[in-house]
């Protein structure tokens, strides 16, 4: 799915993060149009002799990595040295993710990695997080979880599929509630609240996980340590 800024900006961010990958590393492969640039660049580096293994975070990133010729492994077999992943919004190093409904697997891989490099374009940067938070729920919990999220101050909307009638169904067979909370003053507290709702598989708040933010623009790329 294509979202956010220019393709050139996304490519610069993706290639900047891919340049941080060294021989022998296990790399978490994020999902989305910006992470896709990193995956394609890593594929080109593998063609030129780079020796890495990738751990995909979604059906999309697995397919892309296969096409790019990146050997794959799994979390049962290896720990990622680094993960490269996109974001829907970035503020103060914290992220909202899940625009592609892949945030559950992304969080597992990103949290397991020694370092998480976030790739973004300037449209993703904000002073304070205020984007709707995607919450993956078990299908049976759709209504009860929505009620609890409303009670916590959120406004949940079941994510509808495009080019299919009915809801988005995640790679894990679950549904997604996009939950607007307005300005999120305390992402850690909201993350804990959402995690405690019965039937919530994972939410898209990534708090304290990012190590570097690579922001590409039409002019170049800036890298911020978190
Ligand atoms: C998928 C994600 C993506 O990383 C996020 O939506 C950013 O995507 P893009 O780089 O296409 O804007 O969290 O679940």
Q: Top keywords for this entry?
A:
226 residues, alpha/beta, Rossmann fold, Alpha-Beta Plaits, 2 domains, six-stranded mixed beta sheet, 6 helices, 13 strands, 25% strand, globular
Descriptive account of the structure:
This protein is an alpha/beta fold and 226 residues long. The chain folds into 2 domains: 7-124 and 207-225, 3-Layer(aba) Sandwich (Rossmann fold); 133-201, Alpha-Beta Plaits (2-Layer Sandwich). The protein contains 6 helices and 13 strands. A 6-stranded mixed beta sheet has the order 2-1-3-6-12-13, with helices on both faces. The protein has a 4-stranded antiparallel beta sheet with strand order 8-9-7-10. A hairpin with a 4-residue loop joins strand 12 (212-216) and strand 13 (221-225). Bound molecules: ribulose-5-phosphate.
Question: In short, what is this structure?
Answer:
The protein has 226 residues and is of the alpha/beta class. It has helices spanning 7-18, 33-47, 59-68, 103-112, 142-151, 187-195, and strands at 26-29, 53-56, 82-86, 89-91, 94-96, 115-120, 133-137, 155-158, 175-180, 200-203, 205-206, 212-216, 221-225. Bound molecules: ribulose-5-phosphate.
């Amino acid at each position: 799915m294509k979202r956010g800024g220019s393709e050139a900006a996304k490519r610069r961010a993706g290639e900047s993060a891919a340049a941080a990958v060294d021989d022998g590393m296990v790399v978490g492969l994020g999902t989305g149009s910006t992470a896709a640039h990193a995956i394609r660049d890593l594929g080109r580096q593998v063609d030129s002799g780079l020796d890495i293994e990738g751990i995909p975070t979604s059906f999309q990133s697995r397919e892309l990595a296969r096409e790019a010729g990146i050997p794959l492994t799994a979390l049962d077999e290896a720990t990622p040295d680094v993960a490269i992943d996109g974001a829907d919004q970035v503020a103060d190093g914290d992220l909202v993710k899940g625009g592609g409904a892949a945030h559950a697997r992304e969080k597992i891989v990103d949290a397991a990695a020694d370092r998480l490099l976030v790739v973004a374009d300037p449209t993703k940067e904000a002073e304070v997080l205020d984007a709707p938070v995607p919450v993956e729920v078990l299908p049976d919990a759709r209504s009860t979880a929505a009620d609890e999220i409303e009670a916590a101050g959120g406004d949940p909307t079941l994510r509808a599929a495009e080019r299919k009638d009915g809801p988005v169904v995640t790679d894990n067979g679950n549904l997604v509630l996009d939950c607007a909370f307005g300005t999120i003053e305390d992402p850690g507290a909201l993350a804990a609240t959402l995690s405690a709702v019965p039937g919530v598989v994972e939410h898209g708040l990534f708090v304290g996980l990012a190590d570097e933010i690579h922001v590409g623009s039409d002019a170049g790329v800036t890298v911020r340590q978190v």
